Amino acid sequence: MVILTKIFNQTIYMNKLLTFLIVIGISFSACTSSENGKVFVNANGYTFQGDSLITFSTLVIKDGKVARVGDTDIAESATGEVIDLEGKTVLPGLIDAHAHVMGLGFQELNINIAGIETLEATLDSIKAYAEANPELEWIQGRGWNQTLWPENEFPTAADLDEVVPDRPVFLTRVDGHAAWTNTKAMEMASISMDTPDPQGGKIIRNNRGEATGVFIDAAENYIAEIIPDPTAEERRLALEKALEKMASEGLTSVHDAGIPAQTWELYKNVADEGNMITRIYAMIGGTGNDFDELSKNGPIDSYANDRLALRSVKISADGALGSRGAAMKEPYSDDPGNRGLLFYDQEELNSMVDKSISNGYQTNIHAIGDRANDVVLDAFEQAIEEYGDQGLRHRIEHAQIVSLEDIPRFKELDLIASMQATHATSDMNMAEDRVGSERIKGGYAWQKFLDQGTVIANGSDFPVEHVNPFFGLYSSVTRQDHEGNPPEGWYPEEALSREETLRSFTVDAAYAAHQEDVLGSLEEGKWADFIVIDRDFFEVPAIEIWQTNVLETWVAGEKVYGE
Predict the structure, then answer these.
(1) DSSP E strands, 413-555
(2) Global pTM?
(3) What is the set of domains in the chain, with CATH numbers?
(4) Tens digit of pLDDT for each residue in 511-527?
């Protein structure tokens, strides 16, 4: 027994000595080598390799890209700075496939009233913000959501007049598809009983025909167009705040759903300075003047070492479910006579899709209601018949309420479903009220899409939802709120597994941007974009997923967030 104990102790000693010598050897090599490398050891790492999810303990990076990934033995021949992760969990950098970067930045600058659960508390916040910012000509912000309030009714200008009577106020709903203004703003915009509802928009009126202060979708422009444009300094500051926020939440890449030419120039300038710490796959906003300007030289697949891309177009077909602006085939179950709003008729939408596709752009169309999804599918079908597939990987953004007979058309047309998991858990308090028990079967139907082989690119639609991607990972796995309700999940048969969920936020999101060869997983030759987190995504109880904290964020092998 004494001999066996000595042999056992000697074995432990030799193993420790071997590990020590490996680390010393790597460190010595780093000092004597001119290679620009890093060697991460003792990781609890997960990544996709082809179609498989693998684990790893060692990650070798050279010149910003993955050189090798595997177990301890690959460290023996590696050169570079050694970084001991001490068993912490590593995931590929998370990709948000549908977001609004400048919206997030301005949310950080303006008042954020998201998640406030009463009208009274919302007004208190607005009053406090206005009093704290007396120099502002306009009070602006976003986030209100009447479905959270006990009265569950749209607010009015009279409500705002009580707290801000002397300056114009413009507050967008949480989904961005409605605006709440005060009387001062309506007076400045010359809103009267004779002001017509624009195509794709609606002014909420009282029984006397007077505007009450809420403007739906295209009608928002009556007020928005008289608001002074942000200065160049304000826009730059908003972008900086957005980049910092995204990096702190573990996002290494986002798909920016609809930008003007001015924003693209800002992005390029920041990238040229080396300050684009989150990659942005940008979509041109519509096929109008901005498209004409930005498409002069064709799609931009990569700019500044894949920090930017501009090869897609974002078109919106309808509004949102919460404001009953989503276009439905039949009236809303809780609002008879209202079918929502289509922004364009079939001919107009077909023309826009033709213009985008004929110029070689991936076309990504916002469609929430079942009628909107139907007309968008028809537009894609017509365009693909005329131009062929071309490998452009067109997408339907949101695909939120889809008729059961229309879901297979996504596969037939080889479309990507760009969906946002947190929309399901945010909307579950009202979605079935809006569409009824039958139509909801095609709502937020993630598994139905996956089962037929449709690629799902996941995201958040921030700042409509919170920028934190772990909220989306949690919603995708559980279909529950943060208190774990409902206990079995909301329509739990549509939930994704943890592996399916991570794929939708990494390699499949990269695929939706034509970037799967350079992003989305920690494989040899791809950019070394990854995050270090405080718990094991695959092992913790599901209720803990949304509580995950990001400790470090790395982009191209450089730390952009963390101590």
Answers:
(1) 416-420, 456-459, 530-533, 550-555
(2) 0.85
(3) 1-87+522-563 (2.30.40.10), 101-224 (3.10.310.70)
(4) 999 999 999 999 999 99
